[in-house]
Write a structure and sequence with these properties.
Number of helices: 3
CATH topology of the largest domain: GMP Synthetase, Chain A, domain 3
Distance between the termini: 40 Å
Number of strands: 9
Largest sheet: 4 strands, mixed
Radius of gyration: 17 Å
Helix content: 10-25%
Number of domains: 2
Bound molecules: zinc ion
CATH architecture of the largest domain: 2-Layer Sandwich
């Protein structure tokens, strides 16, 4: 297959954030820049949270998938770009919807109350600082009584 930005994006769409398996890294807004020649493929990513243990796993998976797709490429570089922080605005519409369906509140900044992704109530409470994933916190909605996860604040 010829190397093209579009084909690279198709490969990247198969990669999921290990912390949030419902969401692929393209919809998550993690892809900052793609450069390629027929021989060299370079992908720059923005990590959501630099402390996430899943980042290295994700990087290796991307490299493996790119190599499987273009075994003739002489160099594949996948780098995390730390200069520019990831912000929730980078999520695509699909990404926001997928997060909501997974019961994960979209990341929020500041002290604003966190809306429940299930019923929209602002009457929510932090339950557990350590949820199932290192980058998520567990909340409970006091209106619909459902638990939900949210990104840990910066
Ligand atoms: Zn609720």
């Amino acid at each position: 297959m010829t190397v093209s930005a579009e084909a690279i994006f198709d490969v990247l769409r198969q990669v999921r954030d290990p912390e949030i398996p419902t969401l692929n890294i393209v919809d998550m807004g993690l892809v900052r820049e793609i450069r390629h020649t027929p021989e060299v493929i370079q992908v720059d990513l923005i990590p959501t949270f630099s402390g996430c243990p899943g980042l290295e796993l994700m990087r290796r998976e991307i490299e493996r998938r790119l190599k499987d797709t273009w075994p003739e490429a002489s160099e594949i570089r996948v780098r995390f770009q730390l200069k520019e922080p990831w912000t929730p605005e980078r999520l695509s519409q699909d990404g926001q919807e997928q997060l909501r369906q997974a019961g994960i509140a979209p990341p929020h900044l500041g002290d604003a109350p966190l809306p429940c992704p299930i019923c929209g109530s602002l009457n929510t409470r932090l339950n557990e600082v350590y949820a199932s994933a290192a980058c998520l916190s567990l909340y409970r909605c006091l209106t619909c009584h459902n638990p939900f996860s949210a990104f840990k604040p910066w």
